[in-house]
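thread: overnight batch results

M.L. [08:02]
morning all. the overnight job finished for the chain we discussed friday. pasting input first so we're all looking at the same thing
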Amino acid sequence: MKLSKKILTLLFALVLTVALAGCGGEEKPKAEEGNKDAAESEKLKVAFVYVGPVGDGGYSYAHDQGRQYLVNEMPDIETTIVESVPEGADSERVITELAEKGNKIIFATSFGYMDPVIKVAQKYPDVTFLHCSGYNTAENVGTYFGRMYQARYLTGIVAGKTTQSNIIGYVAAFPIPEVIRGINAFTLGVRSVNPDAKVKVVWTNTWYDPAAEKEAGKSLLEAGADVIAQHQDTPGPQQAAEEKGKFGIGYNSDMSAMAPKAVLTSAVWNWGPYYVNTVKAVKEGTWKSEEYWGPISDGVVGLAPFGPMVPEDVKQLVETKKQELIDGKFDVFTGPIKDQTGQERVAAGQTMTDAEMLSLDWFVEGVDGTIPK
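M.L. [08:03]
and the structure it wrote out:
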């Protein structure tokens, strides 16, 4: 009996020990899960609004490449994207929803999002909004863009050296200063090496419409163009050029994969470093509203690798002029510059101000086309 009592006592103690150990074992995973949830909730939420699909091969694709760079550089943040958001009222709804969901930084990547951003920003003063290519700011709204006209000028040199017909086609989106500025810079580059060349412009009034943009490219080829440039978000114009055995200048991202036999080079965006710098500044509490317009020396704009059809002497010519831009020895919009009517708009030795470039509403000499009202 005494032995049985001792055995029972030992068994009871053993069961109690195991039970306590079991309770302790249950608590540990809960604590770890709680820490994980806390870590997740502490992640800074950053959102991106795109006007086209990420797979457009152009503008939205370039922005998303920048976002991916940001995620790789700052894995402690959480990003959200919303694709194919129409400009206007629908974008206001999307941006509002992103703010409501706890995103503390929202990048609105298209010109037509500007007014909706300003409206939403007034309701969410603790959220930082960045609007790409616009001009309206607020205490919690900044604008950002790059001096793409510098890269445009350089691609114009390539086009001017390549054309045999002296007709270069340009498929253009909307008649806003950004697009007009790009056409003018490209034309100045073309005529710096080929004064006889003309740049023929066709408007599509679209940012992303593969079929319409390709058709516009075809119409320019039928009009005698043997090089096709573009301010569009799809590689359609480049594909049209390749199908006709002609050449092209891509835009937004390196478009050579979509038309390898046609693309001489592309004027490209490199948003990644800007996104990293901006998010870091917000996290550190040093961000202030500004109108960022980065030059080629910042790396935010540049050129894609040259195609194998571009001669070495042309590559060297472009590299030399690029270095002059970086060093500040050359500026694209330095006079003398005449408009289509032959009237001098920028005197010799004078350089257009940023305000003048940002409001451009006329074409330089050498452009064949009109600007719709």
